[in-house]
Structures are given as C-alpha cells and as structure tokens.
Amino acid sequence: MTSTPAQLAVVGAGPAGLAAAGEAGAAGVRVVLIEERPALGGRAMLVPGARGLTEGLMRDLRAVEVWRHSAVWDICRRTLMVLRADRVECVTADAVVLATGARETLLPFPGWTLRGVTTLEGGWEAVRAGRLGAGPAIVAGGADAAMLANRLQERGLPVTLIAPERPAALVAAAGYAAGTIAAALGAGDVESVETRDGARYPCAMLCVESPRCPATGLARRAGCPVVYEGRLGGFVPRYDPLLMLHGPAPRLFVAGDASGLDAPRAAAESGRLAARAALAALGLLPDADEKIADARRRLRAASIPLHARAREALMAGAAPDEVVDAWDGDPATVVCPCEGVSVADLRDALDEGAQTPDDVRRLTGCTGGDCAGRRCELALLRWLSGARATPIGRLAPAPPHAPLHPVPVSAIVLPASADA
C-alpha cells in the first residue's frame, strides 16, 4: 500500500470537482483529483448545454494530478483509501472536497433485479462504453428518457419510449407507447416488459428514469450528520456557509450535487466556493474574504432559485420541513438484491419491533450487502417512512460500512514472499 500526500484532494470529476481542482491548481496548490469512471465530466457530459461547461473546466486541470478509474472506498479523517489499478493507495490531504455527485436509484418493482434493467444513467454508460446488444430496448420516463431513446435510435438499436405522454424531444423514428412500466419479465435476463394496462413489449434492455439523490456515503463515513431536504434531492450532509462539513474532522468540504441537486453551472460554482474556502482554511488564499464573497455571489446567481433558498437555509442551520415520503410494493417484491430481502420481510421486521433503518438491517440484512445500500437504501427509508407514518427526516441513515466499493482481496493482501 502506497501513500500520496496532497494539499487538496478532490473526490469526483463532475462540474463541481473539476471547478474545485482547477481553482486550487491555478493557485499553485498540489491537488489530486480522483474519479471512479474512466472519463471525466460526470452526468453533465450528458446534459444539453452542460457539455461545453464541463469541457471548459477540463482545460483548467493542467496543474492537477488526475486519477481516473479510481474508486474511493473509505475515508478516515482526511485520509482517503483508493482502489487504483487493482491496488490500494492512500491519499492523505490537508483538505478534502467531496464532489461525489448524485446517483439515480431504481425504486423496486417486479423484475427490477433482472440483468438488463438499469437507470437512465446506466443506459448512458452503456452507450459510452459501446455495450449495446442487438435486441430491442425500452426506455421509460419523460424528456430525459427521450434523449436516451434518441441516442439509442441513432446507434441503430430498435427502441420504444414508454411514457404517459409523448415528449416533444422524441425523434419520429423512435417507437412510442403510452403507459407506465408495471413489471419486467424474464429468466435471469429481461425479455419483455409489461405496462399497467397489461400490454407487453419485447425487451433486451430496459432503462427506467429514476429519482436522483445526493451521494452522501463518504460524508457519512467521515461522521457528518445528514438531514432530509426534498428540494435538494433527499438526504444531504450538514455544512456551513463555506460548504465545510459538520463532523469530527476539520477541513472536509462538500460541493456539487452531493450537497444538494442544482443546475450544472451551480455545481461548478459550489466547487469554486469549496476550493476557495479550503485554501483560506490552509492560509493559502490572498484576499480570502473578498474571493469567498465573490464565489458565494456566483453560486447564488447560477442556482435554481428554489434550490438556492433551500441551500441557504441549510447553511444557516434551519430545520427542513418534515414530510412522510411513502413507497410500498407487492409483498414479493425484492427490496435488497444483495440479501434477498422482500417487502414481506420488511413488514415482518416491523411486526418484530423494528423502528429504525438500523433495526431493519439487524433483523433482515437490508442495506448490509455488498453494495453497502446503494441500491436499496432509498427504497427502505421511503417504505419505513410510509409504514410508520414517520417523517423521513427522522429516519436518517446510519453511516455505511466500508468498503463503499468492492475491493478485491488481492488488492489488500500482500503477496507471499519467495522464502515462505
């Protein structure tokens, strides 16, 4: 295991991470930018109008050390454990910016665990990687789903968009069916989908538009509390007006959609603010007050107004509104694919006295599998909120267990010596 020192470590290379790394790199600071995907830019590379922003931010990385295809699987204060090229490396930084973005999370429905069923983001990743088969594709959702359907059509894949209404952006060559998805059918792989009116369509790839929620796993591992703010996408970490996280370790900052969903330009400006705040905390930012005030003005100007108000209230320590965010499903519907936990199992746990997500995990194993809850945590929290008629904010998830990403044993076990 090797160790790399840095003055600033940035996790995530979407608009927020790119802006933070570029800002600090331009100031002469040693920056390590860590991105789990092979390509930089994150989801913004898929959003009309945001690709140019992201490509411009990439040009500012000349003084930045960039680690692609590197997953941060744990954090201890300001030390990051990174899986890089099938080996574990540590990055120990004087300050850290967590720009981990947001992720789409499928809410369970019958057949959602079949191979070939994914989110829109999963569909775009398949397009990027060229992992498209020859079979028909179904895309379910609205305008964002239409963009993916158009791209699949351009790539020569037979595609049908299923939505309550035909989006204006959908090209004429793509198929369209009115309705909503009720179930995916197949044996191992998805073979067809059924809509709520009983119609069936052949399908080898199903992409479902799904809720996006801030990726807070690393912030929670670092000991930062989270609160539920629906206007920002769900649970978000607690942070101050400089985007510094509450918690036991100082000089940990958050930026971009990890701090709450907003426009791509706002994500970039939050990265700029976090970088300037980190440099100021390290005593490396001349005219700090003026530059931080400028960054805050730019963030407000770039933000969606409703999101800006919610973020400002959160920075000031205001308590979000309490809402019951309910979800339920057929008793046989699998909620946790890793542990095979169904809705019926959740109801049994509630009958046995489960009150919190930790109680449910202890009794059923839900969220305790290999994916560390990434696939099932949102569904569990929404189900528990509705089943107990409890505001979802009172069911704040516990810190996830490490590793946050699968780590092969070969990466952490030293090879036997020749003399052994």
Using brief descriptors, characterize the structure shown.
420 residues; alpha/beta; 7-stranded mixed beta sheet; 5-stranded parallel beta sheet; 21 strands; globular
Please provide a written account of the structure.
Helix 4 (143-154) links the parallel strand 9 and strand 10 (159-163). The strands form 6 sheets. Strands 1, 2, 3, 4, 5, 6 and 19 form a 7-stranded mixed beta sheet that branches. A 5-stranded parallel beta sheet has the order 8-15-9-10-11. Strands 12-13-14 form a 3-stranded antiparallel beta sheet, with no helix packed on it. Helix 1 (15-26) packs parallel to helix 2 (51-58) and helix 9 packs across helix 10. The protein contains 12 helices and 21 strands. By secondary structure, the protein is an alpha/beta fold.
